[in-house]
Design brief:
Layout (H helix, E strand, L loop, with lengths): L25 E4 L5 E5 L2 H8 L4 E2 L27 H14 L2 H25 L3 E2 H6 L1 H11 L11 H14 L25 H31 L5 H12 L4 H33 L10 H14 L7 E6 L3 E3 L2 E3 L4 E5 H5 L34 H18 L4 E2 L8 E2 L6 E2 L3 E3 L1
Helix pairs in contact: 2-8, 3-5, 3-12, 5-9, 6-7, 7-8, 7-9, 9-12, 10-12
Bound molecules: protoporphyrin IX containing FE.
The site of protoporphyrin IX containing FE has 22 residues, from α9 and α12.
């Protein structure tokens, strides 16, 4: 058994994961022992994420958290750059993600989701929604978006992408330095009941092989699209990067690999975790999701309140002293920003997750961050979540979990955790 799949632990479902309470910025310690300042209140988090003196790239100069040289936590990645280099690379992505392109994708994304719903209904109960829905849906969207759904050398099957993704997850997925442990919301994090040393070494070697294979696949893919561009996202990114100039090839490889694997996995995780909550604890609300407006508002609330994984904080460095709500974070401090705490700040969101799921949020969510690193895939997640919930509820109003939420087995990863199986009937 792979150390990051199918491990049953006593982990709480992500919708019940405790977060540090919202309070003024204060010193904490990261899991690797790095001293940091923890920021938890909604308004402090918004402010600090938009402050250009709080940077990401500087973390890599000092060997602190997130400074490993693997494909996941590479300084060449979009996420680990700041300032002009970051703006150039991000601008390239934005050229590919034009509102017109996104609008053009919506009809076939909806059609792909409907196809999965129809296949599920045709196969009949019982079913595992992870195998039959929450994984195939984002896989279909990802491969079509990136032009990896053909039979040629670009063709990608679910098993191969899953293997590469598990290797990325084991190494940190999208680079993020983990949760501060001072207030210990997740003392028993992923891997707490981990494998023995031999198994760990075998897994590490298998993951290294998988990552090398993935990097080679992506490098060759980019070369082919450069020679013969199509209408897919990889071609658009390559064309935009070559048009803009000055984008290192390594950054492009990292971007394409991340958009494919992490993009795919995060949607699967968000969908899976939302369904565990809805079917396990909000059966009353489920049939109401057949209404498209309710599905849209519910999707936003679930994305807001249910985190994607166990990591609590996203990490930055303060390059100058930063005053936040009366507290000064000193220059050079590592800053741990808890999006989860901010999204549950009772001063802004008094209702919390268990309120009416049909209510609009009281303030814009920070689930996708804010400021220069705002999530590039937010549009995609919202679209897939909304369409999935609406179409699934319309077709199967009696859908229900056949296992208690407490017995759900998890696919573990440092940045995402998702149900390994979602046993249902109707
Ligand atoms: C529920 C699913 C998702 C969540 C909750 C999420 C959340 C986030 C967050 C919080 C950040 C910024 C982290 C920070 O500021 O430190 C981020 C960045 C990013 N996300 Fe997502 N994401 C999701 C899905 C996706 C998908 C589907 C894609 C791609 C198709 C994607 C692509 C990216 C990229 C490329 C960045 C880096 C942007 C930059 O640094 O400029 N994400 N995401």
């Amino acid at each position: 058994m792979d150390s990051v799949t199918d491990t049953r632990t006593a982990l709480p479902p992500l919708h019940r994961l405790p977060v540090s309470p919202a309070r003024p910025p204060h010193p904490t310690t990261l899991p690797d022992g790095t001293p940091a300042w923890l920021v938890t209140r909604y308004h402090d988090v918004r402010q600090v994420l938009g402050d250009p003196r709080v940077t990401r790239a500087d973390l890599h100069d000092v060997g602190t958290a997130g400074a490993t040289a693997d494909v996941a936590a590479n300084p060449a990645s979009l996420f680990n750059q700041d300032g002009p280099a970051h703006r150039r690379l991000r601008g390239t992505v934005q050229r590919a993600f034009t509102p017109r392109a996104i609008a053009g994708w919506q009809p076939w994304v909806a059609a792909a989701i409907q196809q999965s719903v129809d296949a599920l209904v045709a196969a009949g109960p019982p079913a595992d929604l992870a195998a039959a829905f929450t994984r195939p849906v984002p896989f279909a969207v990802t491969t079509r978006l990136m032009g990896l759904d053909g039979d040629g050398p670009d063709g990608l099957d679910e098993e191969r992408l899953h293997r590469w993704t598990l290797a990325l997850l084991a190494q940190g997925g999208e680079p993020d330095a983990g949760e501060p442990d001072a207030e210990g919301p997740g003392a028993e994090g992923p891997g707490a009941e981990g494998p023995g040393a031999d198994e760990t070494n075998r897994d590490a070697a298998a993951h290294a092989d998988a990552l090398a294979e993935y990097a080679a696949f992506t490098t060759e893919l980019i070369a082919r699209r450069r020679r013969e561009p199509g209408d897919d996202l990889v071609s658009r990114l390559v064309l935009a990067a070559d048009h803009d100039g000055g984008i290192p090839e390594e950054s492009l490889v990292h971007l394409v690999a991340g958009l494919t694997a992490s993009g795919n996995e995060s949607v699967a995780g968000a969908l899976g975790n939302a369904l565990v909550y809805l079917l396990g604890e909000r059966a009353d609300h489920w049939p109401r999701l057949a209404d498209p407006d309710t599905a849209e508002r519910t999707a936003e609330r679930l994305l807001h309140f249910i985190p994607l994984g166990d990591d609590e904080a996203t990490i930055r460095r303060a390059t100058e002293p930063i005053e936040l709500g009366g507290t000064v974070i000193p220059a050079d401090a590592v800053v741990a920003i808890s999006l989860g705490s901010a999204n549950r700040d009772p001063a802004v969101y008094p209702g919390g997750l268990d309120a009416d799921l049909d209510l609009p949020l009281a303030a814009p969510t920070l689930a996708f961050s804010a400021g220069p690193h705002y999530c590039i895939g937010a549009w995609r997640v919202r679209l897939e979540m909304r369409e999935s919930l609406q179409r699934l509820a319309a077709a199967l109003p009696g859908l229900r979990l056949t296992t208690p939420v407490a017995d759900v087995a998890w696919q573990l990863g440092t940045t995402t955790r998702s149900p390994a199986r979602i046993p249902v009937t109707w």
